[in-house]
Amino acid sequence: MSVEQGKEAILSAGKRLREAGRFEHFYKARTQLRVLSWVVVTAKYQNEAGTTLDKSILLPALEAVVRSQTVLASRLEFTSTVPNAPPTWIRLPSVDLNKLVDFREEDSDQLKTILEAQYAVPAEYPDDVPPWRLLVLRDGTVAFAYEHTVGDGQSGLAFHVALLNALRKLQQPVPNHSGLITDFRDDVSLTPPLEDGADVSVPFLTILKEVINLFIPESWRKSWTAWTGKPAPESAVFGMNVQIVHYSPEDAQYLVKLSREHKTTLVGTFHTVALIVLSRLISEEPDASKYKSIATSIPISLRRFSGAPPTAFCNHLSALREYYPLLPAEHYSTTISADNFPWDVAARLTEALRREAPRSGSSIGLLKLLGGKYEQYLRGMFGKKRAAGLELSNLGPFPVNSVEKLSDDAPPSSRWNVGEVLFAQGDATFGAALQLNVAGSPTGGVGVTLTSNEHAVDQAFAEKFFVQFHKGIQELLASRDAK
């Protein structure tokens, strides 16, 4: 039997669930072109009795997670012979966890190297497994890596909520587990696509604007003088440089409090620190005179409008794309403090997110105009200017309200908790030059990663950005110490 015949046999034995939504189809097209890598959300698991998260403990808990989240036993495949038809979600007849879970000898101190190794090659997987994998480190850190068709960044948090709940409910003694999951229920379904739960209609004026843009010379557009890093390469590229920093619950709490006092949020504050640093670094570049602004992108979760809960796997998001004028030297030539910080810039972003969120689904509605010709559209982006120089993705706080509470008499072996959380993504070919990824932990801390690729921005530039970004946050935190 050929590889193709084997794949057909597996898909034929599976259960067809539903057609992909527009955004899912779009992500599948990006995956087909190998221009989009894994989304990764990591969490550090700890047990009060000192129990090790080994194979005997993890596999039974993971089976419960897979059975509760149908998408983790499914994959998106093109099954129609009609050109540009959407792919179909197919639940596999079985899932072999032994092919998906990798127990490693490293610990979380080596996460930078581990993540960079994942991004160094295309996101590929055998035909008989769903598009995700699990890396389990010896200190209890679990890295959930998944194709973007499976879900957005918050879906990674949903996975860790489900795994934490499953670990807490494991019956003792834990039975031996072969790693093979079969006999799935038939009465299951996936979270509906975004367009089935939220308004993604496109106003006529938006369509008119898009049409007019086709005829406006590039030199007349805001993007012409916006910094977006290097142009997209002529073909798919791989590899991400990863930088990591954690902020303690006390530091994160202060930053949130400081932000609220100035009518903004943590996203607004982080975004503005990034603008300050980028304005400084761009001013030092030989071609600095070319740029007047920085193109930025802020993903927006649409779950509040679609009705999808924090525990759902889905791609219910859009983005706010703006051009921010380069900040004058007065903002980056001195030490950052709460007193001299441009809080008005941060507050404007927060207000823009609040204003645009309810109607931002129209950007997903615009995909309908492509008629399913997503690969053709994406191929047209090779060699072109990137859409953004900076993307700031914030998963928000860990959804602790979805974690089942432990009873007072729960045995120590069931007392599992999650500590540090991190989020990373790899979009080297078409993504923003610099991607800041933020995630909250159950204890209130915040993990931040920076992912970048040398085809988008020089590594030295990215490293200076991250060092100075962290320094800027530390300077804001020093305002608390000064008081």
User: What class do helices, strands and sheet pairing give?
Assistant: alpha+beta
- Overall number of strands: 17
The helical percent reads 25-40%
Mean pLDDT equals 93
Sheet bearing the most strands, described? 7 strands, mixed
Query: Segments where pLDDT lies below 50 for 5+ residues?
Result: none
Radius of gyration (Å) = 23 Å
Rounded to the nearest angstrom, the distance between the terminal CA atoms is 72 Å
- Strand content is 15-25%
Number of helices: 15
What global shape is seen?
globular
Description:
The protein is of the alpha+beta class. The model has no long low-confidence stretch (mean pLDDT 93). Strands 10, 11, 12, 13, 14, 16 and 17 form a seven-stranded mixed sheet that branches. The protein is globular and about 65 Å long. Strand 6 (101-103), helix 4 (111-119) and strand 7 form a beta-alpha-beta unit. Helix 3 packs across helix 5 (153-168), helix 9 packs across helix 12 (343-356) and helix 9 packs across helix 15 (459-482). The chain has 15 helices and 17 strands.
